[in-house]
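Re: export button greyed out
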Amino acid sequence: MLRHRSRLAAQVALLPAMLIALVVYCGSTGWTVWISLTSSRMLPNNNFVGLRQYEILFGNERWLVSASNLALFGVMFITISLALGFLLAILIDQRVRAEDLLRSVFLYPFSMSFIVTGLAWRFLLDPTLGIAKIAHDIGFTWFEFDWLVRQDRVIFTLLAAGVWHAAGLVMAIMLAGLRGVDQEIWKATRIEGIPAWRAYLFIVLPMLKGSFATATILMATSVVRLYDLSVAMTNGGPGIASEVPAKFVMDNLFERQNIGLATAAATSMLITVVAVVAPLLYWRSRAEKAAS
Amino acid sequence: MRRKGWRLSARRVGLYAFLLISAAFFLLPLYVMLVTSFKDMSEVRLGDLLSLPAAPSVGAWVKAWTTACTGLTCNGIQVGFWNSMRILVPSVVVSIAVGSVTGYAMSLWRPRGATLLFGIVMSVAFVPYQVFLYPLVRLFSFAGLNSSLPGIITVHTIFGLPTMTLIFRNYFASVPIELFKAARVDGAGFWRIFTSVMLPMAVPIITVAVILQVTGIWNDFIFGLVFAGRENFPMTVQLNNIVNSTQGEREYNVDMAATMLTALVPLAVYFISGRWFVRGIAAGAVKG
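Workaround output, generated via the alternate export path:
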């Protein structure tokens, strides 16, 4: 009797999660994909038009700029954060003094929001009052640093803020990985007389595939969601130079009242994530299996 | 012998030099924000970006807190602070309650469909939120939840579910199964085992969950913007409005003070929780 009641209770306890999964996760995704196949503008309709919205989308300059910004930002952001974070982890792993303090300093940006990050960096990179002013004040009056307002450079200012925000996270994940490396391996490399940098690059690095994959997955997810940082730092400008796909969707949903186009863009984002993250997940599960 | 020692110490110097330069890079924005917020505007305009304030004043902080303008109203960022608090507390409690019960049921009871459910819930951790926004807005306006406190709390519960379920499921799965079996032999049911056996043991993971949710929900921008409504805009949204909707001359010292005020809660959580924060990241770093 009690046994049955408990089984039932377990089933009931999962109801909220089931409801969320069915209605919100599956239901909303399905509806979004469906809307993207219709001619909906201000309100959703069921007038099926096939891939018309996608044709319009990929002929839209704002979207193309957004998508190429995301690709450029994503690749550089992940590469630089991984490199800097791994380097910092290795250096901290050299039995340095004040390790805890250094770790806190490298990681604290990650605790702050993208809005705060964006506003702080916007002031820092302000062409008249920011870092550029220091150069002017010490006599380099010819020195111009106006990347924040230059269409061809603005994406790099977002990149600086992004790396500042995330490199500490990579450092924390990689350091945890490094600390998990078997001491015997270090002994073996010393006996063999392998230089430390080669040991890190060719022996330890391949062992940390799982950590690398975890850090990459975390960053890739946040890249696709990139929105707040662009809003706070540049609001997509100058012109449309720092637009990103998430912002394209938001603007078309809530300002331009073009939900057909917005959902087509959202669906394209979803497909991109699946294409990037699924292989990474597969790769990580294989790396973990090989490690165990 | 001597030569080797010298080379070694040169390497140490290089090591520390790189670490210190990196530390300076990471601290620079925080330092500039802080010193700027204690300057007056003429000093911000004419003085050195990096210099300490000549005559430190909390004027900008007071103005940011009490009278800075967000669009039409000029009640300072304190409005956003209290809104964020009213969103934060119930959202943290509800999302952890739902996540812990879900994780507990999945790990120890394994009812029908639990594996499939877990797969669906976890995959959402990667999906861009833009995919869900429009249908959710429609659903919420149908249910009368749009632009309301219950609405934004529901949204934080919905999107906190993947991480919360994951960390509690993993934690309860690591509890010795004998303990669970013994409790069942003693006649304890589903809820009894949860409240008297599992929850008391789960204090560490609840701490991790609180850290994750407090920083995550406080830092949220997009959900607050879409679902909270003008009356309940959280601090991040108000901050962005204060800084980006300024008409006329910008007051960078007030902007920086408002930014610091918004960063204060997550920074406090980070520095107080220390290594627990890292543990939270590790626990939440979705393991498939």
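Chain A touches chain B through 95 residues (CB under 8 Å). The button fix ships in the next patch.
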